[in-house]
Amino acid sequence: GCTHIPERVPLCLDLLPALRGEDTTKSFFQELVNILLSYVCKSFRRSSKVLDFHHPHQLREGLEGFSLELPDQPENLEQLLVDCRDTLKYGVKTGHPRFFNQLSSGLDVIGLAGEWLTSTANTNMFTYEVSPVFILMEEILLRKMQEIVGWSEEEGDGVFCPGGTMSNLYSVLLARYHFFPEVKTKGMTALPRLILFTSAHSHYSVKKSAAVLGIGSDNVVVVKCNDRGKMITAELESSIITAKDQGCVPFYVNATAGTTVYGAFDPLNAIADICESHGLWLHVDAAWGGGLLMSKRHRVKLQGIERAWSVTWNPHKMMGAPLQCSAILVKKRGLLKDCNQMCAEYLFQTDKHYDTSYDTGDKTIQCGRHVDVFKLWLMWKAKGSEGFESQVNKCLENAEHLFDKLKQRPDFELVFKSEPEHSNVCFWYIPPSLRNMSPGPERNRRLHEVAPKIKAKMMEQGMAMIGYQPLGDKVNFFRCVFSNPATQTEDVDYLLEEIASLGHDICIRTETDL
Amino acid sequence: GCTHIPERVPLCLDLLPALRGEDTTKSFFQELVNILLSYVCKSFRRSSKVLDFHHPHQLREGLEGFSLELPDQPENLEQLLVDCRDTLKYGVKTGHPRFFNQLSSGLDVIGLAGEWLTSTANTNMFTYEVSPVFILMEEILLRKMQEIVGWSEEEGDGVFCPGGTMSNLYSVLLARYHFFPEVKTKGMTALPRLILFTSAHSHYSVKKSAAVLGIGSDNVVVVKCNDRGKMITAELESSIITAKDQGCVPFYVNATAGTTVYGAFDPLNAIADICESHGLWLHVDAAWGGGLLMSKRHRVKLQGIERAWSVTWNPHKMMGAPLQCSAILVKKRGLLKDCNQMCAEYLFQTDKHYDTSYDTGDKTIQCGRHVDVFKLWLMWKAKGSEGFESQVNKCLENAEHLFDKLKQRPDFELVFKSEPEHSNVCFWYIPPSLRNMSPGPERNRRLHEVAPKIKAKMMEQGMAMIGYQPLGDKVNFFRCVFSNPATQTEDVDYLLEEIASLGHDICIRTETDL
Fold first, then answer.
1. Chain B residues with CB inside 8 Å of A77's CB?
2. What are the N6-(pyridoxal phosphate)lysine sites (modified residues) in this protein (chains A, B) (predicted)?
3. Which chain A residues are within 8 Å of B367, Cβ to Cβ?
4. How many domains are contained in chain A?
C-alpha cells in the first residue's frame, strides 16, 4: 500500500523572504486582493449594507469563529484570509454612497492605489536618503497648496501631519515660538499669560492644543457666533481688548473656514483686519473648508485666507484622499525648522553628500513620519486640479438638493434657514407626536431624544449612517455632510425616507413616564 | 471607406464609482498589484540594488519623463501605472536584506497585507461606531503588550500613536498632568519650575517634548552615561538633588531600553529605586528595545520595566511591523482620558446605543487617528508570540556575528569592546593611511571624514546602506542595526567587504591640504 504524506498547510514562514517564497507570496496576495476588491465593489453597491452592527461584547466573544485573541502559535495562511474577510465584514463601509456620518467619507480608488504603493515602499519621511521621491512630492504638493491659498513664491512652508488636530496644534506652537522664541528652551514660565481666541463653533482641537502646549485651556477665549455659526467679529475685538486690560497677552486667533457642524465660514477679512491692528497671529482652520479652494464657484467663501499666517487644510476631508492626509501651511519660511529642530546627529548629519535641506524631519514634532503624500499626489495626477473642482462642486450640489428637499417637507425642520455654504445640512426630524406641540422645554426635551433613537435603529438596520449632536441651545439634530463623490441625489432622497420611516413610530417618553 | 473611431484611453473617471466601473477597476488594480509584487520580490533579491540614487535637482528635472508636477487635466490610467513604477524605481528598498540604515527595516509581507486591508477599510480610530473591529483589536493588543511588560490585570491603559516621539511626548504630558492636573486648564504659568531627567544617549524626543509642551528644553537635565552608553545612576540621583536644592521640581525620569546608537539598556531597577524614593514618574523608552520582551533569552535586559509608570514600545522597529506602529502604555488606568478629553459632543455623544467607553478618541491628543493596529494584529496571528521571539533572536544573532567578525579584522575598530546587548554594532573602518597613525586630534580629524565618504560612495553604488554619526567625543562611526529577518550572516559579511573595498582608496585630506 502507499503512505499518505499529508501536505503541510502553508504558514507565513513559507512567504518571502523564505527560499522559493515568491510563488506562495504571489498566490497569497492574489487571494487577498480578491477579498479586498470584492469589498471595494460592494462598498459602492447600494444594495449592500453600510454596516453589520454588533456590540463590543458580541465581537469580543468571537462571532462565527472570528477570534480576536492573539495566539502563541502561528495560524495558517488560509485562516488569515478568513480573518481578513471577517475584519471587513464586521466593519463599516465608509465608502458607501449612503455613509454620511463623518467629514471624511468615500473610497477614492486612486487614493487607495496610492496607499497600497505607500505601504509597499514602507519608508519614513524624515530624510531624503530614505524617501527621495516622497520628500520631493511633499514639497511640490505643499507649494501647490500654498499657491492655491494665495501666498507669493517668496513665502510659504509646511508639512503633512497626522490629522487636522495636529495641524492646528502646530499653528499654536508656531505662533507662540514666533512671538516668544525663548519658550523653546525656557518654557512657559518665562512668558506672560498668553491668550488665544477661537469661535464657539470652532473645532475642539484649539482648546486641546492649549492644554497640551502648557498654555491651559482656560486661556482660550471662546468668541460668540451668530445664528449661522460665524464668529462675531465685534465680540472678537472686545475680547482682545478685555484680555489686554486684564494684563494678559493675546497672540493668536483661530478663524474657521468650514465649521465641523454647521459648515460655517468665519469672515476671514474682517478677522484679518483685527489681527493686523492688534499684531496677532491669524490661523485659518480650513481642515474641512480647504477643499473649496479647488472650486472657482465656491472659493469666494474663503476670501482673505491669503492673509493667514498659517492654514490647516485636510485633503482627506473634502478632497476625498484616504485617511490621513492633513497639511499645516505656514507663511513664514524657516519658522517650522527654527521652532522644532533638535539637530539629532544620528539622523540629520550635515556632512552628507546631498543637499541636506531636503532632510525635512527636523521641521516636525515627530521623528519618524508616515508617508501621507503619495496618495494625494497620485490623485492629483489622476484627476487634475479640474477633477477636484468638479468633485467639490458635486458634493455641494448634493447639499443644496438636501436643503431644498427639507424646506418642502413638514416632517423635517432646518436648524438654520440659510442656504448651505459648505456641504453641511443640519436638521431635525419631527415625529408625528411632536408636530403640533408648541415650542418650549417639553418639546425640546422630547426632540432631544429623537435623533439618538433613530440613529440606533439606523445602525441596527445598517442601510445608511448619519451623525447627530446638540450644539449650544439646540437639542440633538442630524448633521448631514457630503464628501463622497459616489453619493447621488437618489441617496439623499433615500436618507430622508429612511429617517422618516425609522422615526415615524419611535417611542418618546412623555413627562409622566419619567 | 470606414471611419476609425479611436478608442478613448481609460481615465480615473472610468473607475468605480462610475457605472460599469467594476471591470476597469479590477484590471487597473491587477496591473498595479503586478507592479507592487514585482517590487516586493525584487526587494528580497540580493542581486537587485538597494537604491538608485539621484540628487534632488535630478529628480525634480524629471528623469526619463518621470514628472513630479501636478497637472490641471487628468492623466490616463496607463500613465499613472508608469508613475507608480517610477516612484518605486527611484525610492529606497527598505526591505532589502542589505538595508541597515534605520532601526525600522524589512518588509513583512503579512504586515503589508494588513496595511492593504487597513487602507481599503479607510476608517478612523476615534469611535467604535466607525471602527468597531479595529477598536477592539487595539484594546487586545495593548492588553497583551501590558501583560508582556509585566503589569497586573488591574492596571494598564494605552494608545497607538504616530511614532515613538509622539509616544514619548505622551509620557511627559501624562506625568505632568498626574502631578499637576491644574495644568490642563491653567497652563504652565500656574506651576513651579519642572525638571525632567534623561540620559546623554537617550533619544532627542524627550527634549523635543519638553519644548513642545512648554516646559522648555533647558529644563531637561542630561544625565551622563558610562562608556557603554548606560545612564550612570549616581549621576541621576545627584542631579535630582541639585535640582531640588535650586528650588526646582523634578517630576519625570526617562530611562532608555535600547538606545538609538549604541543599543544600550539603562539599569531600570536602579533607576526605578531612585524614582521611587524621590516620588518621580518613571518612563521607559523601549521604542527600540521593547521587541526584546518577546524573547525569553533577551528580555532579562529589560528587567525592572514592570516598575515603569509608562512605556514606549514601537512594534515597527524590532518586531518588523510596517511604519507606523508605536504604542504608549500607561500604568494608571483612566489617566489618558482625564488628561486629554475635551468631550466634543459632535463625536463623543453619551446618548449612543452602545457602550461608549469604546469611543477611545478622547484619550488621545489627536482627533482623527490612523488605524495602526491591524497590521500588527495580523502579524501576531500569522507568527504567534513564538514567531516574534525567533525573529528577535535571529536579529541579535546577526549582531553577534558582526561583532565577532569585527574583532578579528585589523581594518575595523569597535567603538566599544563589550558584546552587543541589542542588535546595534558600532565601528570605524580604518583606511590604510590611518592604520599606523597614533591616536590624537589629527587622526580623529581624518577618521571623522571616513564614514561620510564611504557612505556617499555606497549610496552612489546602491548595493547596501548603513548609517553613521558622531557621538560625544567619538568621531563619525558606522552604526549597524539588524531588524530585518531577511538579513543573513552572508549579508553581514558582504557589508564588511563592501565598506572595506569602498574605503580602501578613499582620499582623506591631510592637514596641509586644508
1. 382
2. 317
3. 163-165, 203-205, 208
4. 3
